[in-house]
Amino acid sequence: MINIKKIFKRDVSEEESAHWEEYCKKTWSEAKVLIGLPNSGTYEDMMGESPFKSFIQLAMFIASNLESAKWEIMTVPRMITHESRNALAKMAVDRGFTHLMMIDSDHVFDKDLVHTLLLYKKDIVGVRAYRRGAPHYPCIFVKDKQVAETDAMTFVDAHDMGLMVTDAVGFGAVLINVEVLKKMSYPYFWFSRTGEDFNFCREAREMGFKIHVDTDIEIGHVTSKIIRRADYLAQEKSGEIRQFSDDMVQLTQEEKADKNVNYGKINLNK
Questions:
Q1: Is residue 103 part of a domain?
Q2: What is the distance, to the nearest Å, from the Cα of residue 110 to the centroid of all Cα atoms in its chain?
Q3: C-alpha distances in angstroms, 75 versus 1, 28, 87, 169, 197?
Q4: Tens digit of pLDDT for each residue in 215-245?
C-alpha cells in the first residue's frame, strides 16, 4: 500500500489518492535504480536504530513493491570514499541504470527514502543531514560571497521548507539521474580540501544542472549517538555554532508561493 499522505505531506482526497498512486507506480516502474553503499560505516545499534536496520528495511520495502523489483543494492570493497563513489557511478552508467542512489552507511533513514526522492524527477536531489563531528551544522551549503568557492561555502539552516535549490549538499543520501553522469567526465568524484561532494556539485552546476534538497526529510548521522537537528540547535544556542550574514544563506525556492513543490503541475503523460 502506498502511503500518499506521507509522501506528499498533506491530506488528499480519494480521487487525488488514486491519481497519485498511478503517478508513483509509473515513476517507480520506469526507473532502474542502483542503490550504492560507498563505505563500510558503522552498524552499531543506537537505541533501536542502526544503519544495518535501515538498509534491511529498505531492501524489504524495495522487494515488496513490484515497481521497484528490478532495482539493485550494491556494495564495493573498502576504499577511499571518492574512489568508491566513482566505482558506483561507473557501474550505474555501464550497466544501464537510470538512477544512482548513494547512501553512506553511517546514516539511519526511512525505508521509502529512494521511492520518495524519485517522485521529484530532478537531476540531483539530496536530503537534510547534520555533520557527524562537532560542530553539528546542516550539510546544506551555498556559496560564500566573500571567499572563492574553492575555499569555502557556508551552511544553511533550511528545514521543513519542502524542496529547494542549493549550491551543494552533503552526500549522506543523494539520488542522481544517470544522464547527469553520462554528460560528465570520469572521474566524477575527486577529493580536495572542499571534499568530493562539493567538487561534484560544483561541476554539475557548471554544466547547468541544479542541486536540489528535500528539507523535509531528515536522516540521522551515526557516531557515538545519532546526530539530528536537536544536536545542531543545542550547539547554536550555546554559541558553539555561529551562522553567517543573511546574504550568504539565501536558497532559491522551487515553489515560492507555499514553499512546497506543486505536485498538481506534474504531468502524468509527460
A1: yes
A2: 12
A3: 29, 22, 10, 22, 19
A4: 999 999 998 899 999 999 999 888 877 654 3
Contact between 191 and 221 under an 8 Å Cβ cutoff? The reply is no
User: Is residue 210 in a domain?
Assistant: yes
CA pair distance 199, 191, nearest whole angstrom: 8
Q: Write the pLDDT tens digit of every residue in 107-139.
A: 999 999 999 999 999 999 999 999 998 889 999
> Does residue 208 belong to any structural domain of this protein?
yes
Q: Radius of gyration over alpha carbons of the chain, in Å? A: 18
Tell me which DSSP letter residue 107 carries: E
Residue 45: what pLDDT?
59
Going 218 to 51 to 176 to 19, the CA torsion angle's sign is negative
Question: Does residue 115 sit within a domain?
Answer: yes
* Domain boundaries, position 170: 15-129+157-219
Contact predicate 113/58, CB 8 Å: yes
Query: Which stretches of 145-230 are assigned E, i.e. beta strand?
Result: 153-155, 163-166, 168-169, 173-177, 211-218, 220-222, 226-227
Looking up residue 192, the CATH number of its domain turns out to be 3.90.550.40
User: What would the grid cell of residue 52 be?
Assistant: 544495518
* Total of domains in the chain: 1
Q: Where do we find the cell 524519485?
A: 118
Torsion of CA 192, 197, 202, 204, to 10 degrees: 130
Nearest to 27 by CA among 58, 74, 65, 59: 65
3-state secondary structure of 72: strand
- Which DSSP state fits 209? P
Q: What angle do CA 91, 85, 121 make, to 5 degrees?
A: 75
Helix (H) or strand (E) holding 7: helix 4-8
